[in-house]
């Protein structure tokens, strides 16, 4: 969807809302998703699921990575299977 004079203020408000809610959404990403929704005739709910789902997945991945980093696990060890004498 190409932003028009009437959609630009609404698009900018949506991006502002996302910033307020600390949802890291860039204008380009929103534009791509809006184009897809228009092209595929997505329902409002499906559009919202795509928008929020992508952000939620990314947040979960960052949280897992942060927890692993903060856990300070010891260096990984490898096991060598040796030959056993019979």
Could you tell me the radius of gyration in angstroms?
22 Å
Mean pLDDT: 88
Number of domains: 1
* Contiguous runs where pLDDT drops below 50 for at least 5 residues: none
Number of strands: 0
Distance between the termini: 72 Å
The helix-strand sequence is: HHH
Descriptive report:
- It is a single chain.
- The chain contains three helices and no strands.
- By secondary structure, the protein is mostly helical.
- It has one domain (7-71).
- It is elongated, with a radius of gyration of 22 Å.
- 0% of the residues are buried.
SSE blueprint:
Layout: H1 7-20, H2 27-39, H3 44-71
Helix pairs in contact: 2-3
Question: Main traits of this protein?
Answer:
single chain; 86 residues; mainly alpha; 3 helices
In short:
The chain has helices spanning 7-20, 27-39, 44-71. By secondary structure, the protein is mainly alpha-helical.
């Amino acid at each position: 969807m190409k932003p028009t004079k009437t959609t630009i203020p609404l698009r900018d408000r949506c991006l502002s809302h996302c910033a307020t809610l600390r949802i890291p959404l860039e204008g380009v990403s929103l534009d791509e998703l809006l184009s897809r929704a228009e092209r595929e005739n997505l329902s409002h709910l499906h559009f919202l699921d795509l928008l929020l789902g992508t952000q939620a997945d990314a947040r979960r991945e960052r949280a897992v990575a942060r927890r692993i980093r903060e856990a300070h696990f010891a260096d990984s060890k490898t096991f060598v299977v040796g030959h056993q004498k019979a």
